[in-house]
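hey can u check if this looks right to u? its 116 residues, i copy pasted from the old doc so theres a chance i mangled smth
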Amino acid sequence: MNTADTGRTGERIAVRYLKRNGYRILARNFRAHRHEIDVIACERGTGTTVFAEVKTRSPNSYGRPMEAVGADKRRFLRLAAESWLLRHGGVEQPARFDVIEVMLPEKTVNHLINAF
């Protein structure tokens, strides 16, 4: 499985996880300029808009997936989230950034809520 396939698989697993845990998926792979947000969801019950970065690792990968979300990536995610909120009138709504770590082949999920 190449890197792109691994990423797509991880995103599918993350979306299933979010749905099972009471989130409504608003968008996948939202692009604003050159920046992308993997999953945008609404947390049922709170109405919080969740901007989720999905990081997937296979057995031959090194390090924890969260380690790949550095300062530049966080900045780009914030810019894309701002664009989403402006386009969808959600500027006054609560929002947060989560990271969803997916480990393959086990398909285990670690959901880091309010990761940054």
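The domain at 3-112 is CATH 3.40.1350.10 (Trna Endonuclease; Chain: A, domain 1).
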